[in-house]
Specification:
The chain is α/β, with parallel strands linked by helices and 181 residues long. It has one domain: 3-Layer(aba) Sandwich (Glutaredoxin), CATH 3.40.30. Helix content is 33%, strand content 22%. It has a seven-stranded mixed sheet with strand order 2-1-5-4-3-6-7. It starts with a helix and ends in a 5-residue tail after the last helix.
Length: 181
């Protein structure tokens, strides 16, 4: 085997390992665990909300964002996901939950993000009890973004990424469309 062949084989293997799926979030078909978080935008801004109760029975996409990893590509993902859900209508909604250890900064920051990207079908919230998120949600700290698609009662799909942008939205909406009646 030539040296070039070995180098290429190692590079392909490393790429495969780097792109390995990250397990994050509750298992598909499991009952949705309770989620209490502080709303930073929307009608309930400034209140602690049990989103799984207020969204019960309604198609909902929960997006957990590591606050220290938020960047423009993640912003584009949220913007395009919001647009897709607005087009789907039928009571669909995104709850974007920041995982952070700086609650005060996040409380001030999220309304500015909303003002900048102007989302219609998304509520920004933050989990104030620790940057790892609620234990029952099993959010993997290696995932910069974990997206959970639900029918409002059960987990129907989950996606976990270290790098994503608007090109990831079609797989999420494909999982959501069958839930919209």
């Amino acid at each position: 085997m030539s040296r070039l062949t070995i180098v290429l084989a190692c590079a392909l293997l490393a790429t495969g390992v780097a792109r390995a799926a990250i397990e994050s979030g509750p298992a598909v078909d499991s009952t949705l665990p309770e989620l209490k978080a502080d709303a930073a935008t929307g009608e309930d801004a400034g209140k602690r909300v049990t989103f799984t109760t207020t969204r019960k029975g309604k198609p909902t996409v929960y997006v957990f964002v590591r606050g220290d990893k938020f960047d423009r590509p993640i912003g584009r993902y949220l913007k395009n996901l919001d647009k897709a859900l607005t087009e789907l209508g039928k009571n669909t909604h995104v709850v974007a939950v920041w995982l952070t250890d700086d609650v005060d900064k996040t409380r001030e920051y999220l309304p500015k993000v909303q003002q900048s990207i102007k989302l219609e079908a998304t509520t920004f919230a933050f989990y104030a009890e620790g940057k790892d998120g609620p234990n029952a949600w099993a959010i993997n700290d290696r995932a910069f973004v974990t997206t959970i698609v639900t029918d409002g009662t059960k987990v129907k799909a989950r996606f976990a990424e270290q790098s994503l942008n608007e090109t990831n939205v079609p797989e999420v909406t494909a999982a959501l469309k069958p839930l919209v009646k």
